[in-house]
Amino acid sequence: RSSWLLLAPLLTPPVPVVTAPPCSLCPEGAHRFQWIRNLVPEFGISSSHVKVLSSPTEFYELLKVQIKTAKQRVVMASLYLGTGLLEQELVDCLEKTLEKSLQAKGSSDLRVSILLDYTRGSRGRKNSRTMLIPLLQRFPEQVRVSLFHTPNLRGLLRLLIPERFNETIGLQHIKVYLFDDNVILSGANLSDLYFTNRQDRYVLLQDSPEIADFFTELVDAIGDVSLQLQQDDTVQMMEGMVHPYQGDKVAYCEIANRRVMEVINSARTRQELLHAKTFHSSQQGSALLSQQGAQPSEGLKPEPDTWIYPLIQMKPFGIQIDEMVTETLLTEAERDARIYLTTGYFNLTQAYMDLILGTRAEYRILLASPEVNGFFGAKGVAGAIPAAYVYIEHQFYSEVCCLHQQERVWLQEYSRAGWTFHAKGLWLYLAGSDLPCLTLIGSPNFGYRSVHRDLEAQVAIVTENKALQQQLHQEQEQLYLCSGVVSSSTFEQPNRYVKLWVKLVTPLIKNFF
Predict the structure, then answer these.
(1) Residues of the signal sequence (predicted)?
(2) 126 an active-site residue?
(3) Would you state the pLDDT for residue 14?
């Protein structure tokens, strides 16, 4: 299907078209998703380079190992860096690696770039900024810390909204951690909870230089339009750059759009040229081998069986690629296909809800029970947020029942004593298949914030390899094993009681959380 033809005109600026050679894959397999490469770069890799992680501890230990062995670059994008002992250990690892790099050569080749959100990273007296300033002071030539400030928080609004509440307007929400040519995509932040007992998703793409280059360039592009942290804890914009909340908003957003789309379009062109070159080389090589009756050399790069598509969503800058691709995947999911969709914060956009309720595929939606919601037990108004999510969930479940869709659309609640739940993404099982051939993994929650307010990135991983499909299936099963199916009786439990004021306020504020 040529779904991209409907979507491509919506992208601005226009994406350059490079004619790709015909693909030899079976149209019934991964080929059906190759329309995505008309919107974003396609990275073909071997499935042996993909590793799915399952636990916060595994994620944390991998971060430390990767930092310690990095030689050229460490690039980390997150909402914030926490201030506890585990986070300090990460900073210490960075410091030792930078130190070792300097000692080895006298001048370090290692560059460290960290992108965080300005409002979340500045919260409290001890914060992400104070954690990183020692690195800036000691290694000013090697370390860059960028703090993204949404252009929508400005003027009187910025003066009046207090700390914490100002984070509702818009955030840098991308979570990418890369070390030389190894890339970790996740929904997890750099905070102790995410290293211990806050369940998320994590995938490692090993020895993938093109993917690492893409995300380095993406983080650099956002960093260039962000405030730069200085050694004295002040911030300033790069010379000649429009200020996000003091400068002209339209001009700032246009520059940001241009910088990010340049990264996407140039990578897309590079990959298409590489694809064409590889295709013709492999055709010639195959012809030569068949003439000689020889076997391919072990040194040759194996044919890719897995494809990575980076999906970017930055509505403040007019970039809506992730939204387009997600909507198209939901629209085109066939009868008897199964979609397992998970989010730590169940607050789907109206468009996503309409597609789930109006299309043919089966859905298993995993969400947080109130007790594993990250806001459970919070002080003040934030303590009512789990109840607001219960109310939104109940409304959606009622609509499912009203449309007699209970057999096709299931809600399941994740529950695990002593843990919180933050996993997001989806797994797509084609009709008749017991294994998924596609997963989305990254930062978006499928809610209003992800689509309209924040900067988000995830990847679509499409694979024909059975072993990798099995890894993804086991990841899905492991998460869903800790869940119970939602029924009418779920909302009759005492812990599901929602106060009247929460019901009245939720429709007014649901677009902010």
Answers:
(1) 1-19
(2) no
(3) 38
Q: For residue range 162-191, what is the model confidence (pLDDT) as tens digits?
A: 999 999 999 999 999 999 999 999 999 999
Q: What is the pLDDT of residue 293?
A: 58
Where exactly does CATH 3.30.870.10 map onto the chain? 47-263, 305-510
Catalytic residue among 92, 180, 207, 224: 180
Q: Beta strand pairing status for 438-442 and 456-463? A: antiparallel
Calculate Rg over the CA atoms of the chain: 23
What 3 state SS string does 166-191 have? HHHCCCECCCEEEECCEEEEECCCEC
The two tokens of residue 484 are: 């119970």
**Which listed residue (49, 173, 394, 473) is catalytic?**
173
* CA nearest neighbour of 250 among 258, 262, 238: 258
Of 49, 175, 315, 473, which is the active-site residue? 175
Cβ 119 vs Cβ 151: under 8 Å: no
Fold of 305-510: Endonuclease; Chain A (3.30.870)
Contact 395, 402 (CB under 8 A): no
Name the nearest CA neighbour of 390 among 434, 346, 447, 339. Answer: 346
Task: Please list the helix, strand and coil fractions of the chain in percent, rounded to the nearest 5, in that order.
Answer: 45, 20, 35
Q: Residue 241, CB half-sphere, CA atoms under 13 Å: how many?
A: 20
**pLDDT at res. 27:** 46
Backbone φ, ψ for residue 270 (5° rounding): -55, -45
Task: Clarify whether 92 is annotated catalytic.
Answer: no
Q: Which residue ranges in the chain fall short of pLDDT 70?
A: 1-30, 105-107, 279-301
> What's residue 378's pLDDT?
73
CATH superfamily of 47-263: Endonuclease Chain A (3.30.870.10)
243 is catalytic: no
